[in-house]
Amino acid sequence: MRSHGLILLAIVLALYCCSTTGHNGEQPLSKIAIRKTTLATTVAARIRASPLVLGLQGQTSEWVTVKFSHPNPSNDDWVGVFSPANFSATTCEKENFREYEPLLCTAPIKYQYANYKNDDYNKTGRGSLKLQLINQRADFSFVLFSGGISNPKLVAVSNTISFANPKAPVYPRLAQGKSWNEMAVTWTSGYSTEEAVPFVEWGELGGPQIRSAAGTLTFSRAHMCDSPARTVGWRDPGFIHTSFLKDLWPNLLYTYKLGHRLYNGSYIWSQSYTFRASPYPGQDSLQRVVIFGDMGKAEADGSNEYNNYQPGSLNTTYQLIKDLKNIDIVFHIGDLSYANGYLSQWDQFTAQVEPIASTVPYMVGSGNHERDWPGTGSFYANMDSGGECGVLAETMFYVPAENRQKFWYKTDFGMFRFCIVDTEHDWRPGTEQYKFIEHCLSTADREKQPWLIFLAHRVLGYSSGEFYGIEGTFQEPMGRDSLQELWQKYKVDIALYGHVHNYERTCPIYQSTCVREAAHHYTGPFEATTHVVVGGGGSSLAKFTPLRTRWSYYQDYDFGFVKLTAFNQSTLLLEYKKSRDGLVYDYFTITRDYRDILDCAVDSCSKTSMSS
Ligand SMILES: *[C@@H]1O[C@H](CO)[C@@H](O)[C@H](O)[C@H]1NC(C)=O
Ligand SMILES: *[C@@H]1O[C@H](CO)[C@@H](O)[C@H](O)[C@H]1NC(C)=O
Ligand SMILES: *[C@@H]1O[C@H](CO)[C@@H](O)[C@H](O)[C@H]1NC(C)=O
Ligand SMILES: *[C@@H]1O[C@H](CO)[C@@H](O)[C@H](O)[C@H]1NC(C)=O
Ligand SMILES: *[C@@H]1O[C@H](CO)[C@@H](O)[C@H](O)[C@H]1NC(C)=O
Ligand SMILES: [Fe+2]
């Protein structure tokens, strides 16, 4: 795993190995493989990128043109995008199966084959690519390789290009604070607290603006649990700032701008954004909530990235942006970016969701791809986080948890109470999380907050996902064993999950039995919880088991998301929409009066006194 001595490659052209090296001794330089990368620079091969300066009007994303020529072209040739421009093209030995090709010591941000939309590249040796870059705190270079991604040979390196201000504050994401009238604004920049003071300038739309200070977080390579996050996938995360905008007036529109005050007195500003403050808990007004899991990210320019398997991600994102005026809050219940240890991808993800997350609260949950790593306290000892072991999710996004390491929290939104569970930590009786779940469910005031929603990443309820079918559990083993009593006792209306990349809805169910037939309209007293899998946010779809259960009512093998609409305290609508067209494919309503919630259901009430 450590030094293999020989350094085969000495890249000229102002390249310096391992520019992203940290200070803790785990340097990519110490892992150079001997055989693979060879230098194949030829004088006639060229690659150029333009324009040289991006974001001159303050844009945080821009399209660039990369032109290249190669005297000895092949269909295997590819172009890698590197940032910082100063990178290492040496090959680093694979440490575990969570590292993927190309196995370069500096992972490219993304890459594309030279013949992509250049049909005669292998004859003419000439091509050009249109690539979309986002501002991510450093400059860029583009490199032409031959030998495919398995055996990369560096052919030519481009000029360097850069955003006008690479450190600019970018990608704001809103989240509900710990109290209903507080909005957290989190963003990323290249400004440490030694260089500038971060703050948010904000106020009612059209009214006077005030400034609120922001806190700053970052982390080092030493915080990563393993490779690739700790080695080839590491990239400087910059600084993550959070400011809490307090004492908001329900439903009013606010504007805000991210700012940094440099110590010489100059200011750096972001563009200006708008959001609507959240409703007061119990407030009877139209409230619309979008919920999905497992969305991930993808490149609009068609480029390949590490962990490039979320083909539905852009459709979901575009569909939500299209309907944003009719959405009040979003829950992304785990498997957020699928960076899986290639840290640059968190910038790509926050850039992709920016139009949504800067406008409505973007509440996240933790999934296996955020948290799991062997020997790090995750309930599941797999390697799905690529060595991130939760640090990225816990820092890049704010959630109103007591301790963001333990990614469970409650949040109130008007007539809704949401209890968000962390399936990557134990939830069974006797655990800290079980106490939280019972507390969250039991403290909802159902007169004012009639709609009680349980959210989790892995399926703790019911799913006909193929792998759960093979296990014969139709859930995570031990998932609902003890939770079903809580759902029943506290009359949870709907439980939603991700993890299984499809859509499925059950009948109102308790102890694996339909308490009533599934339908499109439910009225009258609560009988049992409806379970919904909504893991089709974007990641490659998951098959259903061919086994048919009595409780599975609607199944869809496609990308989509759920929208809950609370019209008032007596009518709730759930709609399942496909990401491809935004149309409704499944729905149901719950209509009831307050006395219906007070009424007893199976196992939901203690006995009333017999004395008179
Ligand atoms: C590459 O980047 C590192 C770290 O910023 C710097 O120390 C080094 O001088 C750079 N090398 C070149 C050739 O620019
Ligand atoms: C060039 O690419 C085309 C399309 O992929 C392929 O059919 C053809 O065989 C290639 N020619 C050479 C010389 O590789
Ligand atoms: C303050 O520093 C920044 C960055 O170094 C510079 O662009 C700006 O012109 C300086 N402003 C003043 C007033 O000196
Ligand atoms: C609640 O909203 C539904 C749907 O808009 C409507 O039909 C119903 O009359 C409303 N109920 C009350 C009590 O306002
Ligand atoms: C995305 O939406 C378009 C337009 O509806 C559709 O043609 C395409 O198949 C969708 N992509 C995926 C991966 O579902
Ligand atoms: Fe998952």
TrEMBL record:
Catalysed conversion reaction: a phosphate monoester + H2O = an alcohol + phosphate
EC supergroup of this enzyme: hydrolase
Keywords, sorted A to Z: Glycoprotein, Hydrolase, Secreted, Signal
All copies of domain Calcineurin-like phosphoesterase, residue ranges: 288-503
Domain Purple acid phosphatase N-terminal span(s) in chain numbering: 172-276
Cellular component terms (Gene Ontology): extracellular region
Ranges where the Purple acid phosphatase C-terminal domain occurs: 528-586
Annotated GO MF terms: acid phosphatase activity; metal ion binding
Stated name of the protein: Purple acid phosphatase
Signal peptide segment: 1-22
Localization per record: Secreted
SUPFAM superfamilies documented for this protein: Metallo-dependent phosphatases, Purple acid phosphatase, N-terminal domain
Natural source organism: Musa acuminata subsp. malaccensis (Wild banana)
Gene3D superfamilies xref list: 3.60.21.10, Purple acid phosphatase-like, N-terminal (2.60.40.380)
Superkingdom as given in the UniProt entry: Eukaryota
Family label: Belongs to the metallophosphoesterase superfamily. Purple acid phosphatase family.
Residue ranges of domain Purple acid phosphatase Fn3-like in the record: 47-165
Record's subunit section: Homodimer.
One of the Pfam families matching this protein, by short name: Metallophos
EC number(s) reported in the record: 3.1.3.2
